[in-house]
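sorry for the late reply, my laptop died twice this morning and i had to redo everyting from scratch. anyway the thing you sent over, i finally got around to it. pasting the sequence first so we're on the same page, its 571 residues, then the predicted structure underneath. double check i copied it right bc i was rushing
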Amino acid sequence: MTDLLNPQVPELFLNLSQRFGLLLAGGFAIMTVTSLDKLGPRRDRPLWATVLLVVLFGLFGVLGTYTGNSVFKSFANLRAMVVVTAGLFGGPGVGFGVGLIAGAHRYLIDIGGFSALPCGLATLLEGTAAGFIARRNPGNSLDWQMAMGICLAGETLHMGLVLLFSQPFVEAVALVQVIALPMIVFNSLGAGLFVKALDLQMRFKQARDRDLARQILSIANQTVGHLRGGLNPASAQATAAIIMNEAQVAAVALTSNNTILAHVGEGEDHHVSGGEVLTRATQRVVDTGEPLFVHDRQSIACSSDGCPLTEAIIVPLRKGSRIMGCLKLYGTRRSPLDETLFELAKGLADLFSTQLELEDIGIKNQLLAHAEIRRLQAQINPHFLFNSLNTIASFCRTAPSQARELLLDLSRYMRRNLDSSRGLIPLSDEIEQTRAYLAIEQARFGTRVKTEIDLGPGAAECLVPPLLIQPLVENAVRHGVLAKPEGGLVRLTAWRENGHLLVEVHDDGAGMDRVAVQAIVRSGSSESLTEGIGARNSNQRLMQLYGPDYGLLVDSAPDRGTSISLRIPQQ
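ok and here's the structure:
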C-alpha cells in the first residue's frame, strides 16, 4: 500500500506549491491595505485590535485547510504557517484564538475523517506555543528562522499525533508517509516567508514614520522664529517657502479665515497673497474644523477656470478653541499628494497651533508692561519663561496632553502675575499661582523638586498681598533644593492663629550664610539681580503694608536648609 501511495507525494508537492503561492499572495495583499504595524506585536493592544487579528488570521487559517488534495479523508494543508505567524505576531491571545478557529473548523465543520481530532489539536497547540514564544522574545518575535523552527517542530508533532490518535493505525501510517514531507516543508517555508514579510513591512513603516517626524521637526525648527510673532503675511510667506522647500509639493498656502496670507508655487498668479480665499474647500475646513484631503479640481472648487491645482490637503490652524486659518498643500498631475503628506500637514498644523497659543499669551511684552512685575524680577525671570516654553515644546512631541496642562499652568501663572495690581487677594489665589509655578518646575526637574502644601482650616480664605508667597517658594526651589544635585523638599504651610495668617516656607536645600540672610531682612536694601530678590521684595512690601514688626523671619545656615516665616493680620 505504501508503494502505491508514494507516487502521490510529487503530485502533492506540486499542488501545495500552487496553493502556497496563492495564500502568500493573499496575505501580502492584506498587509498592504491594513495598518498591521499598529496592531501588534505589543502588550498594550486594545481588545478590539486583538479580536480583529484573531478574525483576520483565523480566516486565513480556515483557507489554509483547503490548499491540498484529499488523502484518506484528510487534507494536506497549510494551516500551520498561518497559526504560527499569528502567534508570533500577536502573542498568546491571538495565537490561541487563531488556532482555536482553524482547529475547530477542521474538527467540527470541515471534512471530518479519522485524523480530524489530531489535526485540530495540533493546530491549536502550534498557535498557542508560537504566542507564548513571542511573549518570551519581546521585540524579536518576528524572526523568520524562529518561525520555521516552530513550524518544523509543530508539524512533526502533528504527524506524531496523527499516528497516536488515528485509527486504523495502518491507514494513519500510510497517510503520514504521503503528507508529512510536503506539509513540513511548505508550512515551515511559508511561516518563514510570512513572518519575514510582516517584519519588513513594519520596519518600512517605522522608517517612514521616523522620516516624517524628522521632516516635521526640521520644518518646525526653521519656522518657529517666524511664527513667534504670530500669524501674519510676513511670517506666513516665510513659513510657506520653508514648507515648499522641505515637502517638495506643487504649492503651499497659509490663510486666515477669509484672506490668503501667503501662497507659494503653482497657481500663485491668481491665488494672490492678500487676496480673498478662492476655494470653497478651505471655507469648508474653517466651518467644520476637520482636516480635508481632496483629490480632484471639482472638490477644490477654485473659482479660476485655468487653475493647475488638482489635489489639496487643507488642515485648520487653531488658537485654543478658535480656528485662526488654514495650512494648505497643493498637488498637480505632475506632483501628486499622498497620505504621508497628509500626516505631515496635520503634524505641522498641531505644532503651529501650539506656537500660536504660546504667542497669544503675550509673555514678554505683557510682563514688561507692569511695573510691579518689573520690580519682582524673580517672578518674571526670562530664564524661567524661556526654560518653561522649552519644556512645554518638548512635551508637545512626546506627551501632547501633558504639554496642554503645562500651557494651562503657565497661563495661570502669567495671569496672576499680570493681575498683580489688584489689592488683597484670597490666599487660595496665591496658592493657585504657586501650584502652577511648581507644576512647571517639576516637569523640568522631575523628582529633584518635591513639594508639600498644607493649609489649615480657614486659611484659604485669608487675604494676602498678591505675589507675596510665590516668590518665597521660587527662591526655595531655585536657590535651595536645586542647589543640591539630589534636589529636596519644599514645604508650604499656612494656618490661622490669634487673628493672623501665619505662613512658613521651608526647604531642606543648600541654605544661606548670615550675610545672605541679612541681605533679605535688612530694610531699604537695594534691588539687584542677585539671589534673594523675591524674598527681599516680599519683606519690604510686608513692612510697608503692616509695619516693621511684620517683616520676614529667616532661619538658615549652609547645608541646613532654610525656613522663612511671615504673619499677615486679618481684620
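The chain has three domains: 2-206, 228-361, 375-569.
thats about all i looked at so far, will dig more tmrw
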